[in-house]
Amino acid sequence: MLFFEVLCFIVLALAVLYFLMIMPRMLHKPSREPYTRVLYAHRGLHDNTSEAPENSMAAFKKAVDGGYGIECDVQLTKDGVPVIFHDFTLARVARYDDEASHLEEGVNNPDGSIGVAGKVIDYTYRELQQFHLLSSDEKIPRFEDFLKMVDGKVPLIVELKIELKDLSVCPKVNDLLKDYKGVYCIESFNPLGVFWYRKNRPDVMRGQLSDEFHKDKPEEFKGVLYFILTSLLLNFITKPDFIAFNHKFPTSHSLWLCRHLYGNVAAGWTIKSEEDLERAKKNFDIFIFDSFIPKQGNKV
User: Fold this and answer.
1) Strands of the sheet with 114-115, listed across from one edge
2) What is the DSSP code string of 54-76?
3) Which residues are 42's β-sheet partners?
4) Measured at the alpha carbon of residue 138, what is the angle toward residues 67 and 59, in degrees to the nearest 5?
5) How far is residue 220's CA from residue 211's CA, in Å, rounded to a whole number?
6) What DSSP character marks residue 80?
7) Neighbours of 250 (CB within 10 A)
8) CB of 85 within 8 A of CB of 93?
9) Which letter, b or e, does each residue of 265-293 get, where b requires 16 or more Cβ atoms within 10 Å of its Cβ?
10) Are 157 and 71 a contacting pair, CB within 8 Å?
11) Res. 217: pLDDT tops 80
């Protein structure tokens, strides 16, 4: 009997601990209303076979002209300039202007193209301007130039790209955003970046990016860290205002509890069809899309 009572106590204690660990910000929350009015174009309104590839100024201008919100990715160059680029490595999207002279040092992509070797952080901003984005003439844009172009016309979701513990992108991005007049929020897969904003800019709406890592890419994401991230077990530290989650897994336990028990905002990424958008409306409040133009236009 004593064993059973102890076991029940342990289970109850673990359950209480779990609910406390996944609890998002509950007090002094920013209003969700400015962020839930429009659909968000993932990396701009892009087409990677066109002159407006992902995270290019051309794709961002198309999104602004269409009245769509924009989700973009920011990281730092070697000389500390915030630029917009998704991958840490350049090869998938960046191309040499003179490809023939870089065959040996470049990276062979699966599609037969020669990608630029190295990471964004390996190059200065000026050096990055030697390269173009995919088959277009577009260059990797500065975050500052992007903000000037958008100029508050549409809301922004700014993803902070943070490797390991290097948080230097956070104050750099904040310096550019602190006087920005438009609607924006920040998000990151790295909880340290979300915590930086909790500590330094509690007035800014912040989001924890996550996924069912072990289901989405089991060969790539293994170990206890990804279990912790999937389960949102660091929310007690970061206190996010929203959870941005892979739209394929709307019933992931911690995501579901954050939304339905704690009233947390849920953002679904990345929705790639009209059918998926309709399904996502049952489980999410913010919708990030690419690869199609929603029939409903830019409004939610």
Assistant:
1) 107-108, 114-115, 94-96, 131-133
2) TT-HHHHHHHHHHT-EEEEEEEE
3) 71
4) 15
5) 13
6) S
7) 17
8) yes
9) bbbbbbbeeeebbebbeebbbbbbbbeee
10) yes
11) no
Q: Are 21 and 262 in contact (CB under 8 A)?
A: no
Cα of first residue to Cα of last residue in the chain, in angstroms, is 55
Give the Cα separation of 275 and 171 in Å (integer).
39
Rounded-to-10 torsion of CA 125, 127, 133, 137: 100
Q: What is the pLDDT of residue 221?
A: 78
Residue type, 280: A
pLDDT digits (tens, 9 = 90+) for 96-145: 988 767 777 899 999 889 999 999 999 999 999 999 999 999 999 999 99
How far apart are the C-alpha atoms of 216 and 236, rounded to whole Å? 25
pLDDT computed for residue 225 by the predictor: 92
pTM of the predicted protein model: 0.95
* Cα distance between residue 65 and residue 115, in whole Å: 31
Q: How high is the mean pLDDT of the chain?
A: 95
Looking up tokens 């490797």, which residue turns up?
163
Question: 283: which 2 tokens?
Answer: 């489980």
- Burial bucket for residue 182 (CB in 10 Å: 0-12, 13-18, 19+): middle
Q: How many Å apart are CA 159 and CA 144, to the nearest integer?
A: 15
Give the pLDDT confidence score for residue 218 in this predicted structure: 77
Across the range 57-64, mean pLDDT stands at: 98
Q: Please give the distance of CA 47 from its chain centroid, rounded to a whole number.
A: 19
Place of tokens 């790639």: 272
Domains of the chain, start order: 28-88+141-289 (3.20.20.190)
Taking the C-alpha atoms of residue 19 and residue 23, their distance in angstroms, rounded to an integer, is: 6
